[in-house]
Amino acid sequence: xxxxxxILGATGSIGESTLKVLAEHPDQYSVFAVTANxxxxxxxxxxxxxxxxxxxxxxxxxxxxAQLLKQHQLQHIEILADEAGLLAVxxxxxxxxxxAAIVGxxxxxxxxxxxxxxxxxxxxxxxxxxxxxxxxxxxxxxxNALLLPVDSEHNAIFQCxxxxxxxxxxxxxxxxxxxxxxxxASGGPFLNFSLDQLQTVTPAQACKHPNWSMGRKISVxxxxxxxxxxxxxxxxxxxxxxxxxxxxxxxxQSIIHSMVQYVDGSTLAQMGNPDMxxxxxxxxxxPKRISTSVPALDLFLNxxxxxxxxxIQRFPALALARQAMRIGGTSPAILNAANEIAVAAFLEExxxxxxxxEVVEFTINKITPNNAESLDVILxxxxxxxxxxxxxxxxxxxGQ
Length: 400
Known about the structure:
By secondary structure, the chain is of the alpha/beta class. The chain is 44% helix and 14% strand. Strands 4-3-2-1-5-6-7 form a seven-stranded parallel beta sheet, sandwiched between helices. Strands 9-8-10-11 form a four-stranded mixed beta sheet, with helices on one face. Helix 6 runs parallel beside helix 11. It is globular, with a radius of gyration of 21 Å.
């Protein structure tokens, strides 16, 4: 039976990979809705190829987008706008599967809307769980939604766990013989840089990941190891496990995507070429599997696998994320908001690379976290953290 898919963030790297997988299985999936924030021409190309029923763009782009649709004889595609449009397509009754791939905190409310509508959600937006993990998971349980991880690491962990693990009431303790999660990290492009070298790296360098093709923000997060910190928080929520049961392992080859250790001494690893089409296809079809164009791993070409501990002196963002998870409440939301502001400032060449975790640490220390008991509380913490982080960025620009 043909399943309909809504792609939140269709023009980003995850959206591209999703569309690639869907194009390989037109007999199983159809694209119902697509959304974009600024890449309107690219969204038009997607509409030409996949002919969705609905497209969502910011209101400032609606007129131009409508003209382009008419120019390409696609005026039958309905246009919705802004956050209201995102919420509408995420919860649309004709949608079966939602790919949640909007970057950053902007993806939180549309993802939650899909959860409350009881959809199968392919979760690529880690911030949704970082900011509101307990609320999101409670809503998924209440509305019988299926949250499936698409991040390569979390998808790997999911594949290495017993099949019913996500349905367990674990109370933050490992279950079914699991002893520990090993979350792998490539180390990013600056793995072997000294602190002095890190002071002078450029946005262009930070966005050039050695293994993965990603957007600019997540590439910088990978370079600071904040991405791994956010993934640690996400893993704790997704697999209902305390942070001290999650160990980050730097693995530069990005061949092993993560591992699970068991009490009998076994360690299960999920391996594959670094291509997001693989975890996307897995989450799309789970518990079945579908083919992709990703070549199978050639072990004779990948004869060496290296592992090392992360250096939190050079990459303090990872320690800040672990601290935020340990504190709990709104602390992860504060961490995430401050990081988004700091990364944006770095990409605009306003602050240095090493100032990113400094802005985050300053913001965390400035704001007292509250219990994350509601979305209003979480969003208030998010807004407050952004204000504090912006103030710290301005101080750094002024040399203070």
